[in-house]
Amino acid sequence: MDPGSAPRTVEDIFKDYSGRRAGIVRALTLDVDEFYSQCDPDKENLCLYGHSNDTWEVNLPAEEVPPELPEPALGINFARDGMDRRDWLSLIAVHSDSWLLSVAFYLGARLNRNDRKRLFSMINEHPTVFEVVSDRRQSREKSGIDSGNKSKLSKRSSDGQIKSNSRMADEGYDEDEDEHSETLCGACGGSYSADEFWIACDVCERWFHGKCVKITPAKAESIKQYKCPRCSSKKARQ
Q1: pLDDT at residue 171 above 50?
Q2: Which InterPro entries does this chain map to (predicted)?
Q3: What is the pLDDT of residues 91-107, one digit of tens each?
Q4: Which residue among 147, 154, 162, 205 is buried most deeply as judged by most CB within 10 Å?
């Protein structure tokens, strides 16, 4: 990174953090099969990098010493086949959270006390990568899904209402947006917003931005039972 182009303000640093975080979340969720295959234990020490443009990369660590930026955990590929897959992904998520914070505060080294506090507050408004990957951040009660009716397709329309291909138990059911404030996208970890289209997976019951799973409102209308990319890939492996 060119020192002259390094993020300078709290907003710039947070934007950089958000992009890197989004890339890592994608690697460990939507692109998890591709990520898994790239982490070959027979290769040399590999690292998971999140880039500020929302992309991710598995690569060897930087050769220069000291490195341009703090480096992520080294050798993530070696434990791949020796651990339960979910535990392995959670461990990488924890290390990734630490790396994201270290990069953010490395870039913010010249911020004053109040700006550092504001930066951390902005970061802390989002769930950690570990919380997204381990699915500990989503309340089932607040998801608006009837867990007893797994065959029902539920989705949030652009006006924030819950729609379903099956009749809700209470046809007068209507929810205030505040009730969904803790509902987070299973792909990017972003918070619920009433002006965006959301869709729920009928298998794992997690919510997703339509744009994150490439489902439009029109396409959703023709789907009888929606399965997110992760659940679809699980079925394919069986």
Answers
A1: no
A2: Alfin, Alfin_N, PHD_AL_plant, Zinc_finger_PHD-type_CS, Znf_PHD, Znf_PHD-finger
A3: 999 999 999 999 999 99
A4: 154
